[in-house]
Every structure is written in C-alpha cells, then in structure tokens.
Write a structure and sequence with these properties.
α1 (about 5-10) crosses α2 (about 30-60), α2 (about 30-60) runs antiparallel to α3 and α4 packs antiparallel against α5. The protein has a single domain, classed as Orthogonal Bundle (Arp2/3 complex 21 kDa subunit ARPC3). The longest helix has 30 residues, at about 30-60. By secondary structure, the chain is mostly helical. It is built from nine helices and no strands. The chain starts with a helix and ends with a helix. The radius of gyration is 19 Å and the shape is globular. Helix content is about 70%, strand content about 0%.
C-alpha cells in the first residue's frame, strides 16, 4: 500500500487506513468524514500548487538570461502529481498554462495549448508511476521524474507537429530538440535537484514518508 499526501497526513494524525483503504483502523473518524477530510486536503494542496505555478514565473522572469529556461510551471505540476495523485497532476498541468494565457496573456495561447498537454503528461505520468512503485524511494522518484520528463516532451512535440501542420508549417527535429531539451537544461537540472530534496525532507518529517509495499502491508496487519 502506498500513500499520497492526504493519506500520509491522515496516518500522521493517528487515524490510519486499513489495507482496503475503506475503514479507519483506530476508529477516530467515521469513514465518510475521513473521505471528506482527505478530499479537502488534496484539493487544498492542488490549489496551492496551482497558485504557485501561477506566480512562480513572475519571480524566475527576473533572473537574466536563464529565467525563461527554468521552466517554473513544471515544478508545481510535477509535485502535484507526486503529492496529490496522477489525476490532480493531469488536471493542474492542463489548466495552469491556459489560465495564465487567458488572464495574463503569457504564455501566448498558441504556446499555452501545447504546454497544457505537455504539463498534463508530466503530472499524470509522474504521479501514476511514483504512487504505484513497489518501493517509494529516491530511485523510484528519479525514475518517475525522468520518464515523466521524456513523456511530456514527446507529447509536446506531437502537439506542436499537429498544430504547425494545420497551419501549413513544419516542425523539424532541430526545433524539437532545442525547445524540449537544449533550452530547458537549467529547468531540468532544477527539477532533478529540488524535487527529490523536497521529497526527502518531507520523508524525514514523516509528512509524506517513503514506503515499501511489504512494510506497509505489515503495518496494516499489525494495527
């Protein structure tokens, strides 16, 4: 059994869920109340990460030369998938660039549409792989992040090909490599350093602990 942000927080508060995820092991809260609390916590975290993704580009944009290469919206979307689950990562990733484009005009809508599919893939893939890892640890975290980064960029490239093709333009391999990797190297390094460091910190505090499947099962059986 593996835990997202809300499940880990629930256990930290002393309740804990049984292996089937439906009953409260220590009986502190009724089942319906627990589900409502978990949903509220998840929605709150997803909303906070959405706001972070909305305002973070303002700060990174102040950094000369590499500000736009830090991919500031990628960080909260990846974190949303890891902490809240793949469905929330997909939703936040898809809506975030579109909301910024509609309200602020940045990124331009043509760019925002491709980014919406790209970020949705980041959040969904990272959350799906990590929360289904048999052993949640640094290795599984990096594996989930790397696969998500590659998958999201492939999705971005496919959408760009379709969009430019509809306009009668072409999207070359050189354009894909430059947009997906070469111009994003600072952002990729930041994500691969900051996100694991944050997850390790959350693990040490016990808020979102790493779990091995058999250990979690043993905890449930012994509760």
């Amino acid at each position: 059994m593996w835990y997202t942000f809300t499940e880990a927080t629930r256990r930290q508060e002393g309740g804990g869920l049984s292996e089937d995820g439906k009953t409260d092991l220590q009986g502190v809260f009724p089942m319906n109340e627990t589900k409502t609390q978990r949903l509220a916590q998840t929605l709150t975290m997803a909303a906070m990460l959405t706001v972070l993704g909305f305002v973070l580009p303002f700060f990174t944009g102040q950094i000369p030369q590499i500000g736009g290469m830090l991919c500031p919206m990628h960080l909260p979307v990846l974190l949303c998938g890891l902490l809240c689950g793949w469905k929330y990562g997909l939703a936040v990733g898809f809506l975030l660039p579109l909301l910024r484009s509609v309200t602020l005009g940045m990124p331009p809508m043509f760019t925002a549409i491709a980014m919406a599919f790209e970020l949705a893939a980041y959040g969904a893939i990272a959350g799906f792989l990590y929360n289904r890892s048999k052993w949640q640890c640094i290795v599984s975290l990096y594996r989930s992040l790397l696969i998500a980064m590659i998958g999201g960029r492939v999705v971005w490239g496919a959408v760009r090909v379709l969009m430019l093709g509809m306009g009668g333009s072409s999207f070359s391999w050189q354009m894909f490599m430059a947009g997906a990797f070469l111009n994003a190297i600072p952002g990729i390094i930041l994500q691969l350093v900051f996100i694991p460091a944050l997850m390790v910190a959350l693990n040490r505090t016990g808020l979102v602990p790493f779990h091995r499947a058999q250990n979690a099962k043993g905890e449930a059986e012994g509760a």
